[in-house]
Amino acid sequence: MSTSLPLSSSSLSQNASRQQHRVLMVSDFFYPNFGGVENHIYYLSQCLLRRGHKVVVMTHAYGGRCGVRYMTNGLKVYYVPRLPFLMQNTLPTLYGTFPIIRNILIREGITVVHGHQAFSTLCHEALLHARTMGYKVVFTDHSLYGFADLGSIHMNKVLQFTLADVHETICVSHTSKENTVLRSGLPPQKVFVIPNAVDTAMFKPNPSARPSDEVVIVVISRLVYRKGADLLVEVIPEICRLFSNVRFLVGGDGPKRVRLEEMREKHSLQERVEMLGAVPHTQVQSVLVRGHIFLNSSLTEAFCIAILEAASCGLLTVSTRVGGVPEEFHMQWKITLDVKLEK
Amino acid sequence: MGRAKVKEQDGAEATSTENEQNLRIHRLTKLHQQQQHTGDGSPQVKWQKVVYGGMQAGYEDNHTDSSFLEAMVMNANVVKRDTWTTIRDSVAIAQYVCVVAMVSAVWTYSLNGVLDASLLLILDSVLLLLGFFVLLLTTGSISVAILCRYALYFTYFVSGLYVLAPVFQTLTRSISSDSIWALTICLLMVHLCFHDYIDASTRTPPAFAASQGSKSDDLPRKLTVKKPATLSGNVSLNASIVASVLIASRLPSSLLVFALMLFSSEFFLLFPLVTCCMKQYSVKLHLGFSSVLIAVTMGLIFPLNRLALVLFVVVIIFIVLVCPYWLIRIQEYKFEINGPWDEAKLCFDLDQ
Fold this sequence. Notes:
- The complex is a heterodimer of chains A (343) and B (352).
- By secondary structure, chain A is an alpha/beta fold.
- Chain A has helices spanning 36-50, 98-108, 121-132, 150-163, 174-184, 229-242, 257-266, 284-288, 305-312; strands at residues 22-26, 54-60, 67-71, 75-80, 84-86, 89-90, 112-116, 136-141, 168-171, 191-193, 215-220, 246-251, 273-277, 293-296, 316-320, 334-337.
- In chain A, helix 2 packs across helix 3 and helix 6 runs parallel beside helix 7.
- Chain B is mainly alpha-helical.
- Chain B contains 11 helices and 2 strands.
- The radius of gyration of chain B is 32 Å and the shape is elongated.
- Chain B has a two-stranded antiparallel sheet.
- The interface between A and B is large, with 55 and 45 residues.
- Chain B: Pathway: Glycolipid biosynthesis; glycosylphosphatidylinositol-anchor biosynthesis.
């Protein structure tokens, strides 16, 4: 997993010139929430800890989980007593979080503040306060956003303020870099492209787990509009009709699950489409190895980790050609469907 | 934000720490080895827009290639506007404002007692016949069955109004006049703001163009192929009906109430259809009719209140002349961005 700081790749033994950093990761999105950003922060923190740096994570309280917790390898997590108000985001008060951020920065002796995800209000506030106090600041953008609707316009404006005074910015793919540069007006040489990675030790292939007489297509995603659940509703009956030896494994939950169940009933595909419900992250590998093909139908992706995980488990990935997906694999290892884009 | 100023850079150096120098030396040796391997003489391996394979030799993580933002499309869906067409289109909006002003003038005359019931009823019938003739003229022939059907609908409507007229008359007896005037003016503003001006443009919308196949059943097709009902269109229609009920309820006799309600309904419900057909038939007829309408309205407002007349003229000039000029002038600042980062749109309708 690549890190966000330019370091020499020498061993962990004494190296007098190598500086040990104390990094504060700030985001609204962290465990117990599951998702791409959360995993990214966790794995990045673990890699930095292994290199000898100190990492502290700051996020908002999740229900009763408030205060300081310690995770693997001494990763310290501050669940700051601020409740989320909209889509897991803390209420933006601009100066309300200053006391606690200052407290954490001074107490932990932080040298670098690393904020994640443009959508997180806590991240923006922490970056602003950290720069006020003169700390080094890095920002990572994980998603693609539009320019035309009211929410995006507002968020881009906030992003311009925050990124006006950030030291470095990281994006997870080249398409994401173009998008971030356009939204924030940053000079492109200030944006580094460091893609996400997957822990291949966790996602090992297992050819014996998949059946040999039929083709199993696995879909694991949140069943929401953005992830193309409606495309699945159209595509699954067609494929089942065209190929009689194909089965589907659908994992994940969301508002569109009802539509998928309806489709299943309407076309009598109960035998051929298995709905697994929400799959915990630890069991994703066991579900993936049961299939031959992984289908990703999302409508927008800055960097799709799901298809990396599937490829790591030895599946053939089929994905919609959106966002950063075309950059992720060499041509021969993927098939992309050009979704009819009405621009 | 204005225009995005994207500067091209190749390998700009940031702070040079010892670690970075180490890394650079390491990379240069690797590149040298690669060159010896390939031996093709070119200085560097071509940069690829991929994120697999780790760091690309000879390129930093923040390398900005010359193909940066190559796939960006600017102002793809923006319509290039022509002054004269925009002014012609804005005449339809001015015409509608004119109609609302005319209806308000007639309301004022009725409330002042100038127009009595019989005069209003004659006016209603004349307008109805005129509208019908215009429809016949613009759409050609019409079958008897369709005619009977619409006559039936109209009879239901009129009889319903007649029966309800006494109810309307006593509806606002307990409300003071000031509240009524204030509420009516607000409702008329809402009506104007939220009105669906979708067929204001002289370009035929696709729904209607498709329906202009056969000639015989033209009228019912035009009447049935409606523009999609929007929330704002419905809100505006309701606002106008409520406003006419409020005003009508101030009148002394129930026959007057019925006549005025019929007048208001004819204008708010049926008039848009007539203007739509007229517009499709001939643009010149539409423009001529609009000018006549503006003149008639000015003549109606003049005896009432000089200030209202001045205000009306100012509003019309603003809509017809100032707004198109302003729109075209700020159009050059339009900056619509599309690119590979856009969310894909589904090409089918979600049927819930």
